[in-house]
Amino acid sequence: IFKFLGAIAVDLGKDRIKPYLLTILTPLYRELNSNYAEQDPTLKNLSQEIIDLLKKLVGLEAFSLAFSSVQKQANQKRAMRKKQRALQTVANPDIAARRKLKRHKNKAETRKRKIESLRPMHKAKRHRSHALKDLAMVE
């Protein structure tokens, strides 16, 4: 898709690409700023190449305005999701507590996995089941 976006940008040219610049930059920005574990480095490089191509094509000023707009939109969405999560914590404390228990359980499992990888002779104790009853609130 990134190659397609780059080809469209080159095909449309400088003047006709400007209305579509935000639409093209949004997925490229998302790929550049993502930090998930299974990220493909070729995608990141490709998105950077296409951003450089767009910068040369439309000029630095127009590109900077569009890119800052995309950044602003992304930051607003992130802030809104964070606010919704905080509101949900207040509105539904039982769901928030369940989420917190699950997060702590995953953290403990990750810690045990890390210890096992660093010291292969040491075996950390693990729970047998990962069912929903393990995530239930304990009174």
TrEMBL record:
InterPro entries: SSU_processome_comp_20, UTP20_C. It holds the Pfam family UTP20_C. Residues 1-116 form the U3 small nucleolar RNA-associated protein 20 C-terminal domain. Residues 120-139 are annotated as: Disordered. Residues 120-130 have a biased composition (Basic residues). It comes from the Eukaryota. One of its GO terms (cellular component) is small-subunit processome. This is UTP20 protein. It comes from Grallaria varia. The gene is Utp20.
